[in-house]
Amino acid sequence: MFLTISTTGTPERPATDLGFLLHKHPEKTQAFSTSYGTAHVLYPEASDERCTAALLLEVDPVALVRRGKGKGRGGAPDAALAQYVNDRPYAASSLLAVALSAVFSSALRGVCRARPERAAQPLPLRIEVPALPARGGAELVRGLFEPLGWTVTVTPVPLDEQFPEWGDSRYVRLVLDVPEGKLTLGEALRHLYVLLPVLDDAKHYWVSPDEVDKLLRAGEGWLAGHPEQKVITSRYLSRRWSLTREAMERLELVRLADADDTDVEEIDNAVDEESDTEEKPVPLAVRRREAILAELTAAGSRRVLDLGCGQGQLVQALLKDTRFTEIVGVDVSMRALTVASRRLKLDRMGERQAERVTLFQGSLAYTDKRLKGYDAAVLSEVIEHLDVARLPALEYAVFGSARPRTVLVTTPNVEYNVRWETLPAGHVRHGDHRFEWTREEFRGWAHQVAERHGYDVRFEPVGDDDPEVGPPTQMAVFTQTEKHDKHEKHEKHSKNDKHSKSEKADHTTKEVRAA
Question: What are phi and psi of 305, to 5 degrees?
């Protein structure tokens, strides 16, 4: 990536003071090694009237991939080919922000020993970035920079100038101008450090909790009152909601302290950490398991199948309740079963406890006589991982062949997805989900299954039931009908009678022949 910083001056206050503020001499070309390539600093022009410093970040795509080690964009499992053909290494705002911090670290903090008075003085500045990823377009670019005092000129970059009908790319050419008297160089650099990766909406490294401190340091004096504070915070922290919430709470304290002209510590003194009793929100996965356990308990189930048990979280919860005397976890993935075995510590489990649990590999697309005779079966977040064309096979294997008295099925409610701030529009909650159903679609499927196989079905919400879009998870509770049970017993009894009569007839025939 390429970025230039320009300023103007007079003989009394020459523009070449920019070299002192950046700690880089205008008459030299310097190179600095970074983790992902080389950052070059040079001055295309340097005079008393005008001075321009340029930062050219030359990214090494191979280093980007090697250092990723499976994390982030560079080390993703599907990046083997992408590292050679995509354009990310040449327009990665996160990399440029890190280079700014590394190469101009003193200027970013507003420190200049040679010209301390100039570091504290606002300068006329122009910053140009010829190619900048902007997810949100020109409108978002203006919304981020204009409230900070910048005059923004943003020009979309076409996909191909030879084919204008193809439209614009996701890149823009950005020019930022600010007159003298508004911003210091340090403030300008801190704006870039935060907002460049925000516009790209991506980072090349794992966002850990210490990123909150980085954001608040760089955003000191301007982020707390920014109208797009929520967008900036969420994107900078890679949409990790726990970190975003922490940052927003701390920014609100800063805003209140500024309003009261006091220190943050004086306001943030209402909580005694040793006696803090504030309840944290219960994760949806935990609420889902609690709802399943409640339904199994209400049904009086003792022998339970966890079909598609994954890494064994539900099996572990069932084992803690002694009312469940036999628990079987089934999954098609041996890797998941291995993780489940480690989670449950089967190799160190007591003999009596180990007798209650069994894990085995199996596919729900095929009938399996090992699944017959159980009180209940649970398919928790399972059906959406199958292609719709495979659902009839699963339906028959569970409801037609295994036939437990109670079947619990949970699946995401796609209508609720609009409530997830971190979920882009049109995306499912997990990359392996083949579909996600609305409440009407799920109920239609469940009613048909119940009718075909002799079950009653009712529906329960899991999680907060939003009045507009429903709960985040929907659960169907299938129960075998008494009519069907009697019919099965009658058929079994009839078969036994026929078998008995047949045996008696054979016995009589043998006696006659013997006589």
Answer: -100, 130
